[in-house]
Amino acid sequence: MNVFAWHVHGSWMTAFVQGRWRTHVPVLPDRSAFGRGRARTWTWPDAAVEVAPEEARHLDVDVLVLQRPEELELAARWLGRRPGIDVPALYVEHNAPQGAVNEMRHPVANRPELVLVHVTHFNRLFWDAGSTRSVVIEHGIVDPGPLYTGELPRCGVVVNEPLRRARVTGTDLLPRLAKQAPIDLFGMETEPLGGVALPQAELHAELARRRLYLHPFRWTSLGLSLLEAMQLGMPVVALATTEVVEAVPPCAGVVTNRLDALEAAVARLLREPDEARALGREARRCARERYGLERFLADWERLFAEVVA
Fold first, then answer.
1. Same domain for 94 and 122?
2. Is pLDDT of 126 > 90?
3. What local confidence, expressed as pLDDT, does residue 197 receive?
4. Are residues 217 and 110 in the same domain?
């Protein structure tokens, strides 16, 4: 099976390329947004191969996996084949919709030649896809291992672009929660807030030293950093928004929209390392059961077999 897919979201793509297929990943000389090529801070198998635009037209491609509206036109131009007409095409929607509920029309709505693949049931519920067929393949991640020590009585938070997306990511809540416990912020473009950007393996090791994982996001798709923290064995304190209430059961942490309850949970877990460790064990068990790599890849194999048949 030959798949053509752009490298958009590093953690999701890292899981996707582990499948029993060959993934052709576009690359441009400057490795800009539509030509990032292979990841340089994640570990990818040899079956993920870079391809230049001028080479794409000669590829034997069985299915396209698209993730941004612009890729519909790019794929047609680079491959010389119309997505969904000349070659099967799946469109993966990673994000929750923005705007008023009545206006949440998806960019590929009413495109019967495509299949829209959501990463959460919440996203499928909120996006209006019209007549386009919609399915859900929930996240799966490469297991980082049970690295949790919780030796540092601090909260770990992973947020990309925390200033630009302050209310979306809940960055504005951190000063209030920091009165209960020191907070270490990790992610891209976090430096103005004193945050740190690390390669994935180093991030996992550092995150696992923190007593708990804090997930203050108000409105976003289900963050892979949350699932990674759970598989590390970290207890979770999170807002009860979007898909979080499905991903984090009560045995794995505290999920609530009450700010006083969030504050109390953070303070308690810092005082009670044994409770934190017990919640973390359950978090890892639950995340591996629901968001394991094997299930994720099997779901994709079934969908590929269906659309390519």
1. yes
2. yes
3. 82
4. no
The amino acid present at 125, given as its one-letter code, is L
Q: Which amino acid is at 132?
A: T
Among candidates 271, 202, 215, 212, which has minimal Cα distance to 241? Answer: 215
**Which alpha helices (DSSP H) does the chain contain, by range?**
10-16, 53-56, 70-79, 121-126, 166-169, 174-177, 200-207, 224-232, 244-247, 259-271, 273-290, 293-308
Q: Report the chain's mean pLDDT, rounded to a whole number.
A: 95
pTM for the model: 0.94
Give me the residues paired with residue 102 across strands: none
- Tokens 């947004």 label which residue? 33
Read off the CATH number of the domain in which 164 is found: 3.40.50.2000
Range of the domain at 64: 2-139+293-308
Which is nearest to 275 in space by CA: 284, 262, 265, 288?
265
Q: Give domain status of residue 266, yes or no.
A: yes
| Average pLDDT over every residue of 212-223 | 95
Region label for 99, one of left (φ > 0), alpha (ψ between -120 and 50) or beta (otherwise): left
pLDDT band (50, 70, 90) for residue 292: very high
- pLDDT recorded at residue 173: 96
Q: For 59-110, what is each residue's pLDDT tens digit?
A: 999 999 999 999 999 999 999 999 999 999 999 999 999 988 899 999 999 9
Find where tokens 């509920």 sit: 101
Main-chain dihedrals φ then ψ at residue 141, nearest 5 degrees: -135, 155
Cα separations (Å) of 227 from 59, 140, 193, 267?
35, 9, 24, 22
Q: At 74, phi and psi to the nearest 5?
A: -65, -45
